[in-house]
Amino acid sequence: MLKSAKIKVYIPLQIGLIVIMVLLTPAPDVVIRSFTLDDLTELCELVKANRAFLREWLPWADRISDPRDEAPYIEMAMDKESRGEGFEGGIYVRGILAGSIGLHYISEDTRSTEIGYWLAEQYTGSGVMTACARTVLAYCFTEYKLNRVEIRAAGANLKSRAIPERLGFRLEGLLRQFHTLHGKLHDLAIYGMLAHEWKG
Ligand SMILES: CC(C)(COP(=O)(O)OP(=O)(O)OC[C@H]1O[C@@H](n2cnc3c(N)ncnc32)[C@H](O)[C@@H]1OP(=O)(O)O)[C@@H](O)C(=O)NCCC(=O)NCCS
């Protein structure tokens, strides 16, 4: 069972209005930190070791076999973060990379974003991702001042859907056969939370 952090620490490093580094502490032993190019090897090794677990819902896991395969993703993430349009972070449990969480985009127009996440199998089942998503959600509303946060998951991905459900998101729709995984059509569940619905 994961203990929640008594104090949540938000330390975005900023130049002007641009956030260049996300560093969050969702629980005493858990840190979320933006990926950098120094993380290529550790990230690649974790994905490779968990390919069989991840690939069911994240088909990109099949394409990672060398640290260089992660470079475009991390470069895209650093670029996105430098423009204030989201981030991709590593989840570190007692200092070891355990998974990832991030904001796919930030829409200036609608002040909205979508959270995405995954964990290595050995770190599942203890509330790590719920704690991380709760902290990133708070970050969205308090630091980025967003109005809407979305989480999307395949209809049959009940472990992923349980996270927005635990955090009080509203199920806004189940888009039928709107998601492809390994060549097959799946339903797509869309969860949303608005700033005024967030309980802090
Ligand atoms: C989706 C994913 C991150 C969910 O992981 P998870 O371990 O179930 O989520 P959490 O870390 O929040 O842990 C929740 C589990 O810990 C338990 N738990 C223990 N202490 C807890 C606490 N303090 N708070 C919340 N849950 C706790 C919950 O009961 C739950 O277990 P259960 O599913 O047996 O009921 C993981 O399954 C995964 O990465 N899957 C593959 C990739 C993927 O699907 N990504 C999402 C694509 S949309």
Describe the protein's architecture and organization.
The protein is an alpha+beta fold. The protein has a domain at 9-147: Aminopeptidase (3-Layer(aba) Sandwich). The chain has five helices and eleven strands, in the order E-E-E-E-E-H-H-H-E-E-E-H-E-H-E-E. It has a nine-stranded mixed sheet with strand order 1-4-5-6-7-8-9-11-10, with helices on both faces. The chain has a two-stranded antiparallel sheet with strand order 2-3. Helix 1 packs across helix 3. Residues 6-11 have low confidence and may be disordered. Coenzyme A is lined by residues 1-2, 54, 57-58, 117-119, 124-130, 153, 157, 159-160, 163.
SSE arrangement:
Layout: E1 9-10, E2 13-15, E3 18-21, E4 23-27, E5 30-34, H1 40-49, H2 51-54, H3 67-82, E6 87-93, E7 96-107, E8 112-119, H4 128-142, E9 148-154, H5 158-166, E10 170-181, E11 184-194
Parallel strand pairs: 8-9
Antiparallel strand pairs: 1-4, 2-3, 4-5, 5-6, 6-7, 7-8, 9-11, 10-11
Helix pairs in contact: 1-3
The protein binds coenzyme A.
Coenzyme A binds near residues 119, 126, 127 and 128.
CATH level 4 superfamily of the domain at 9-147: Gcn5-related N-acetyltransferase (GNAT)
How is the biggest beta sheet arranged?
Answer: 9 strands, mixed
Global outline: globular
Write down the secondary-structure element order. EEEEEHHHEEEHEHEE
Mean pLDDT: 92
| Unreliable spans | 6-11
| Gross CATH architecture of the domain at 9-147 | 3-Layer(aba) Sandwich
Name the strands of the widest sheet in spatial order.
Answer: 1-4-5-6-7-8-9-11-10
Number of beta-strand segments: 11
CATH-derived topology of the domain at 9-147: Aminopeptidase
Question: First CA to last CA: what distance?
Answer: 22 Å
Bound molecules: coenzyme A
Number of helices: 5
